[in-house]
Amino acid sequence: MRVGISIGTTFDPADSTRAPRSVLAQADAAVRAGLDSLTVGDRHSLAPNAYLQNVPLIGRILGVWDQRPVGCLFLVPLWHPVLMAEQIGTLAAIAAAPFIIQAGAGDGQAQFAAMGKGLRDRAARTERGIRLVKALLDGETVDDEEWNIKGAHIAPRPAHGTEWWIGGSVQRSIDRAARLGTCWYGNADLTIQSAATAIDLYREACARHDVHPARIPIRKDVFIAEDRVEAERVGDSLVDAGYRGFERGAVAYGDPQSVAEQLAPFGELGFTDIIIRTMTRGESAVRTVELAGELGAILA
Known about the structure:
Layout: E1 2-7, E2 10-11, H1 19-33, E3 38-40, E4 50-51, H2 54-61, E5 70-75, H3 81-94, E6 99-104, H4 109-114, H5 122-137, E7 142-144, E8 149-152, E9 162-167, H6 171-180, E10 183-185, H7 192-209, E11 217-224, H8 228-240, E12 251-254, H9 256-269, E13 273-278, H10 283-299
Parallel strand pairs: 1-3, 1-13, 3-5, 5-6, 6-9, 9-10, 11-12, 11-13
Antiparallel strand pairs: 2-4, 7-8
Helix pairs in contact: 1-10, 3-5, 6-7, 9-10
């Protein structure tokens, strides 16, 4: 399995001046660790928290990243397709590898209301948005009545192509990943048991649509330290405190060897990429990323 990173970008507003440095420190650590891919998320109007926005962050990170895949999540219903395609086109023109577009439908009434949208038709808007952005990135001239788009055409376009990682945990969204995506992106909250059920649904959808994905990534929240006992103490305390509402089997923590042992069953299920996100922040998060470089060798 390959090991990549999704860098968390949600912070307390009091940390807003330190937050960008924290993200960039993890990106630098990912470079040193030789991780296989790097992405950041997407969120809007996240009060009372602060959220660093995806496009400027990836633009900055591209200054230190090299020829490995890079990209970000887009909550498609909250983006105008032309703007989204233009942002991707520019970032992908800077990147030296295929640009990863993680496409999500998003959630949360407050987030949608803040962006002038409703939740009711988000699935349909997600599919329509993906199709429009794909067409624009392919060089087509696009018209669309729903979005009031007339004669849209963008440049630059991705020089090294794109990968569409489409998430979701229910059958309809997994089917969407097979129909419209390069691959399905497994959710961070999946345990080995629930991941087995979900990946079977994805394989069935791929068979229906005659697609053959080259990769199937899954995100996993992790904490890694040199001292296994200390890492387990920290991880246990986070889980006992209700870490993101996840079950213990959805996260992995310990030293590099024990974390690799916890993640290996996902490879046996057929996942090709583990995309880590750190369970902590600050120096321990940076050290987790540095030590994640050892996972690839162990999991290969």
